[in-house]
Amino acid sequence: MPKHSTALTFPIEDPPSYAGGPPRQLDETVAHVFCTHSADGTAALALCVDTSTPTLLIRTRFRSSYRNRPSRPQPSPAPSKASASTAMLQSFFGDKWSLLDPVVPGLIAAAVIVAVYCASGSAEPPTLENEEEQDGKVMPKRVRYLPSKIPVLGNAMELLSNSERMHDWIADQIVPFDGEPFTLSLPGKDDMMFLAKPEHIEQVLKTQFDNFPKSQHIHDVFFDLLGDGIVITNGETWKRQRRVLVNLFSARALRENMTPISQKYVVQLRKIFEEAAASKEPMDAFGLMHRYTLDVFAEIGFGTEMKLLEGRYQPFAEAIEESQYIVSARFKQPDALWKVKRWLNVGSEKKLRNAIQLIDEHVMGIVSSAIQRRQERKEAAKAGEEVKPADKDIVSIILDSMESNNQVVDPVEVRNIAAAALIAGRDTTADALGWLFHVLSENPRVEAKLRSELLKHLPMLATDAEYVPNVEELSGVHYLEATIRELLRILPAGPLIATHCVRDTVFPDGTFVPKNTDIGIAFYTTGRLTDVWGEDALEFKPERFLDAETGEVIKVSSTKFCAFSAGPRICVGRNLAFLEMKIVIANILSRFHLVPEPDQRTPTYTQGITLGMQTPLMMRVQAIASQDPSVERAMHKYT
After folding, report:
1. DSSP H/E element including 396
2. Annotated region Disordered: where (predicted)?
3. How far, CA to CA in Å, does 530 sit from each of 197, 535, 627, 629?
4. How far is CA 637 from CA 440, 444, 447, in A?
5. Cα torsion for 257, 260, 265, 271, to the nearest 10°?
6. Which residue has the higher pLDDT, 167 or 81?
7. Strand partners, 512
8. 3-state secondary structure of 618
9. What average pLDDT does the segment 548-569 reach?
10. Which of 587, 579, 484, 593 is nearest to 266 (CA)?
């Protein structure tokens, strides 16, 4: 007789989301797991998967860590790899381990078996009968598949082993092949095609846009944090939210509402640099940029002062950091793994749930207050009383837009729009600024020339300590914009975006994209294509964006310089991002020189929606002023 038995029967679906909305059934698959534990410490697993295909029944036996064995004395086991594995699982499941211990081995084995089963049913790469040119017409051509080293697993191991340098690994598969795309085969998933040629990007993001909506996988990964926000949604929801945000980031709003807020916080930022220069202590420039952009966007978006630059601790800010880190980490593990953790509410998924709850409480509180203020203004107007000026933050403007379009105000949708704008807008700008400080420290010629151009066009930067240039003044410093564009070419804040092909598609050059193929648009790789940017594509050279005769910024196609995506989904906040970067660089670089710490390792990027840094960027600040002539002379020798 078995000492203990466990039977689990469950549909493979998502549980209720904490960003709002009902459970989402992924497919019709139902798994039945029967796990029996015997007195000898072994367990038997029977897994039955019911699908539209014939039933699969698999049985296996394995050693269990089940602890409720007979009470007779047992010798203490010697340390082993098995006990180390048990400890790892205990750490993984935390305080739920004692409840789950009998069934964990069964769940893990079941997940492995299901993955292999799904993989074994994967279709062969699509074939085309004729790929030759006929009657002068380009016929469809297959995209090469990356060779698989392990049967059944496809390219999963290559993808996993290169996860820390993912964007460079993708570039390694494309750049030597003249920019031609390639396809990966992954167990249990649709094939994924990576492309980087501007003409292919043009087809996906512009010409055949309707064939390539946002990937369902990306939606699933980010839904808990972003809800049905503009970054990951499609259809009418996306169109409605985009209309709101386009109005929000108008030129007038940028000039009248957003510029003064950015200027206000750059003054605080400059004082931090002054203190760092005086103390000669190193500081984390990358982390500082994230504090600056969150302070700016919190006031622009929510009308609240977080005072992160003043050193105030904000649980909301910490929750944003932690939630983004955990959601991004989902890409490094099988979907089944993080979904099981979420279902059980253990480990990192438990932390994510708590962080998102804190974010929701903060944002929904702001939304509720904004709705209440609007109602008070309406009542005051009806009573003939003095009406307070309308709020200018993003939440209030979203509410205005909904009302003007006779749209029912949905607080959850307001939350989703605001959260997506905050997370996408804040991180892209902060990441770009952090990388720019690093790149300039490695390119003193560019740094010196940029400083010279800033002081030439904006001389008050050298004479007035409180001066902060505005939009019009900054637009005249062409080398500043060229430097930012060159940074975003090589290190785009959004290095990779995903879409999904919903119908067989053929590009003008014959490239065939089969239906149900996931698409990875590798902007990071596009910036490294020599046939697009020249043999010096890997050099940091802002001059490539300037007209040699006029010195003005050259207009480049958004599918060639694609730091802000392209087509109908081009970033609506790109002008605000440029404004923030210009204000920071103009005010900091004109007055300070940043030197990396001697033991500072070359920064490496994170895996996520934006190109973050894995470690702090520790730098020392040196003032560029008459009292520090050695630094000034060192800089001028490069001009």
Report:
1. helix 394-404
2. 1-23, 62-83
3. 11, 5, 45, 41
4. 15, 10, 11
5. 180
6. 167
7. 506
8. strand
9. 93
10. 587
Would you state the structure tokens that stand for residue 602, as one six-digit string?
């070359």
* Paired tokens of 94: 């935390």
Q: 510: left (phi > 0), else alpha (psi -120 to 50), else beta?
A: left
Residue by residue, DSSP assigns 78-90 as: PP-HHHHHHHHHH
CATH code at 240-492+571-636: 1.10.630.10
Token pair belonging to 10: 């469950």
Cα dihedral 319, 488, 554, 171, rounded to 10, equals -140
* pLDDT level of residue 496 (50, 70, 90 thresholds): very high
Considering Cα of 469, then 470, then 476, then 478, what sign does the dihedral take?
positive
User: What is the reported pLDDT for 390?
Assistant: 66
Least confident of 74-78, 351-355, 429-433, 554-558: 74-78
- How much is the average pLDDT of 148-152? 78
CA–CA distance, 565 with 496 (Å, rounded to integer): 10
277: how many CB neighbours lie within 10 A of its CB? 22
**For 55-69, 74-88, 488-502, 556-570, which range has the lowest pLDDT when averaged over its residues?**
55-69
Q: Rounded distance, CA 503 to CA 348, Å?
A: 36
Digit-coded pLDDT (tens) for 262-282 = 999 999 999 999 999 999 999
Q: Which pLDDT score is estimated for 241?
A: 86
| Residue 223, φ and ψ in degrees, nearest 5 | -60, -40
Which residue type is seen at 261?
I
Q: Are 463 and 531 in contact (CB under 8 A)?
A: no
From 273, 357, 260, select the one nearest 315 (Cα to Cα).
357
Strands 56-63 and 182-184 come out as: unpaired
Q: Which pair of tokens denotes residue 342?
A: 């979420």
**pLDDT tens digits, one per residue of 282-336:** 999 999 999 999 999 888 888 888 899 998 888 988 998 899 889 988 887 888 8
Tally of CB atoms within 10 A around 131? 14
Give 527-566 as a DSSP string: TT-HHHH-TTTTS--GGGGB-TTT-PBPP--TTTS-TT--
Q: Where are the domains of the chain?
A: 4-70+86-120, 240-492+571-636
| CA-closest candidate to residue 15, choices 480, 340, 404, 241 | 340
pTM of the model: 0.77
